[in-house]
């Protein structure tokens, strides 16, 4: 009887309901109430809204309506259906100050500041880099694989700073995307990390969504989860309790440097997602704690900067290479740690 009711609801609402969210549960998904599961997956929502959607018959698992206490199983196909169309991402040109490092008729190199979201998405419909770019020039190329992200072939996290390349033509977009896919693009980052880092090293580990906290990524030892990822790091300077390092990306996974460095015990200084925004190394003295807290205030983000970028120009086939200075907040914090380390060694 319940199955029949489910099917009737589905048939009646199929013309009136619109798909707002769709996901397939991972192979390693632990049994979890669907309201809690969706709370972790759907941005800018509340448990009350999810439960109301369940009461209204708007949550489907494998094509059938379920209640909020349904336990999600591995492989479940979950849809959130609502009686209104999802908001479309209308790309609105917006005037903004852009730090343009280089531009020609094929591409543009931008030095992104901290706090600027790269592309429009749920919760960020305006005020993004893409909004500023489409104001800067008439239009950006669209690609079905980059829905709502015209011209983008890679991105940088909101709080990370540094160099990005954006395509201005369809050909440039395809050419650059192929270079990223082939891993021939040269990308080097600089970071401040917790701990005394080895002179150099290589981190290899599959990266994927955390099975319980969907807002963060994690490293899986089991190769059947996540995507293959490799990060190379090299020490620049040691400051006792933190280190200044260079990281070279061999692959380009979401949060890759942040996740890999945290995985080996060297979370990025100030990282709010992977535990670097609390004191992980050092003394118990009040002066030291105050010093670190002051550094956090000066740089309330992860200490990560995309410093250099190299690739082959899509049109001229010439090798292009760009570098950018460290942002002021990172320079200031590094200088403070330098001073602290010199005083500590002199004691």
Please characterize this protein's 3D structure:
With 347 residues, the chain is of the alpha+beta class. The chain has three domains: 2-82, RNA-binding S4 domain (Structural Genomics Hypothetical 15.5 Kd Protein In mrcA-pckA Intergenic Region, Chain A), CATH 3.10.290.10; 87-181, Pseudouridine synthase, CATH 3.30.2350; 183-347, Pseudouridine synthase (2-Layer Sandwich). The protein has eight helices and 17 strands. The protein has helices at 2-13, 34-41, 47-55, 129-136, 170-181, 256-263, 286-298, 328-346; strands at residues 18-24, 32-33, 59-61, 64-65, 71-72, 77-82, 100-103, 107-112, 161-167, 186-194, 200-204, 206-209, 217-220, 230-238, 242-249, 304-312, 319-323. The strands form four sheets. Strands 7, 8, 9, 10, 11, 14, 15, 16 and 17 form a nine-stranded mixed beta sheet that branches. Strand 14 (230-238) and strand 15 form a beta hairpin. The longest helix has 19 residues, at 328-346.
What's the topology here?
Blueprint: H1 2-13, E1 18-24, E2 32-33, H2 34-41, H3 47-55, E3 59-61, E4 64-65, E5 71-72, E6 77-82, E7 100-103, E8 107-112, H4 129-136, E9 161-167, H5 170-181, E10 186-194, E11 200-204, E12 206-209, E13 217-220, E14 230-238, E15 242-249, H6 256-263, H7 286-298, E16 304-312, E17 319-323, H8 328-346
Parallel strand pairs: 9-16
Antiparallel strand pairs: 1-6, 2-5, 3-4, 3-6, 7-8, 8-9, 10-15, 10-16, 11-14, 12-13, 14-15, 16-17
Helix pairs in contact: 2-3
């Amino acid at each position: 009887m319940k199955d029949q009711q489910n099917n009737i609801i589905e048939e009646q609402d199929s013309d009136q309901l619109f798909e707002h969210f769709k996901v397939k549960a991972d192979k390693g998904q632990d049994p979890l109430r669907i309201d809690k599961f969706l709370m972790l997956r759907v941005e800018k929502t509340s448990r009350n809204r999810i439960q109301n959607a369940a009461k209204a018959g708007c949550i489907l698992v494998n094509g059938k309506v379920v209640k909020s206490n349904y336990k999600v199983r591995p492989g479940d196909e979950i849809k959130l259906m609502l009686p209104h169309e999802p908001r479309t991402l209308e790309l609105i040109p917006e005037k903004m100050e852009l730090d343009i490092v280089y531009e020609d008729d094929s591409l543009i190199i931008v030095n992104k500041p901290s706090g600027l979201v790269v592309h429009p998405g749920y919760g960020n419909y305006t005020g993004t880099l893409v909004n500023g770019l489409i104001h800067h020039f008439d239009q950006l190329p669209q690609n079905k694989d980059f829905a709502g992200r015209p011209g983008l072939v890679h991105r940088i996290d909101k709080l990370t700073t540094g160099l990005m390349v954006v395509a201005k033509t369809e050909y440039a977009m395809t050419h650059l995307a192929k270079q990223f896919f082939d891993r021939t693009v040269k990308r080097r980052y600089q970071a401040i990390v917790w701990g005394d880092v080895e002179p150099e090293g290589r981190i290899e580990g599959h990266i994927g969504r955390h099975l319980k906290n969907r807002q963060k990524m994690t490293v899986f030892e089991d190769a059947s989860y996540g995507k293959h990822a490799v990060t190379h790091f090299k020490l620049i300077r040691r400051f006792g309790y933190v280190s200044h390092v260079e990281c070279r990306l061999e692959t380009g996974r979401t949060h890759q440097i942040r996740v890999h460095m945290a995985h080996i015990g060297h979370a990025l200084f100030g990282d709010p997602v992977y535990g670097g925004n609390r004191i992980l190394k050092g003394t118990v003295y009040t002066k030291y704690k105050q010093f670190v807290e002051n550094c956090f205030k000066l740089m309330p983000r992860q200490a990560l900067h995309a410093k250099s970028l190299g690739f082959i120009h899509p049109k001229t086939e010439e090798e292009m290479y760009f570098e950018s200075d460290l942002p002021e907040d990172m320079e200031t914090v590094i200088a403070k740690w330098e001073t602290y380390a010199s005083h500590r060694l002199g004691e």
